[in-house]
Amino acid sequence: MENNWDIVNVLRYARHDWLNKIQLIKGNLSLNRLERAQDIIDEIVMEAQQEAKLSNLQLPHFAALLLVTNWQNYYFRLEYEVLGDIHSVKMNDNELTEWTSSFFDFLNTCIEAFQENHLSISILPEENGVKFFFDFTGSIQKREELERFIKESNQEIMLKELTEEELSFELQWGNT
Fold first, then answer.
1. Cβ neighbourhood burial of 117 (10 Å; 0-12, 13-18, 19+)
2. Which residue, of 62, 145, 149, 166, has the greatest Cβ tally within 10 A?
3. Backbone angles phi, psi at 148, to 5 degrees
4. Model pLDDT, residue 129
5. CB atoms within 10 A of CB 132
C-alpha cells in the first residue's frame, strides 16, 4: 500500500475529491434538491473541521496517514473523528503511524474485497496519552488471523468485539 505522497500527488488527489464534491452539489442543485445540496455542504464543513482537529494534535505523520488512506487501494473506507478538547499530544508519532499503517495493511488482507467495508476511528486526547476507538463493519474473512494480529501487537488493546461482520477495539497510546 506504499505510495510516494509528494506534493503533486497530494494536490492531484485533493483536487479530484473537491471536483467530485462540487459536481455532487451542482447536480443536486440542478435537480432542485436544495436540501440534499445543503447536506453535502454540511458534510464538507464537518470533514474540514475534523481535518483541522486532526492536524492540531501535532502528530503530522499520523495525520498524513489518515488523510491519504482513502486515496489508496484499500478495500475499506476510513472515517475518523477527533473527540473532546483539542490539544497537542506528546507521543511517538512515527511509532503510532507505523502501527496504524501495519494495522490497515493487515486488515486489508483479512477482509473481503469490493464489499461495504467501513473503518471508523475515534480519537480521544487525554492527559496521559490518546485513546483510539477502532470500529470496523463489513466482511471479515480471516477473523482468527486478525485476532492474532491484535493480540500480538504489543500495544495496550482492549478487544471488544470480533465477528465475521464487526471488529471493535480500544487502543490506549501513552505519552512519550
1. buried
2. 62
3. -65, -45
4. 82
5. 21
Q: How many CB atoms lie within 10 A of CB 161?
A: 11
State how far the Cα of 162 lies from the Cα of 143, in Å rounded to an integer.
7
What integer pLDDT is reported at residue 154 of this predicted model? 78
Q: What pLDDT shows up at residue 9?
A: 81
User: Residues with Cβ < 8 Å from 155, sequence gap 6 or more?
Assistant: 99, 171, 173
Rounded mean pLDDT, 41-60: 92
Closest residue by Cα to residue 1 from 84, 101, 100? 101
Q: What is the pTM of this model?
A: 0.86
DSSP 115: S
Cα separations (Å) of 120 from 32, 34, 106? 32, 29, 16
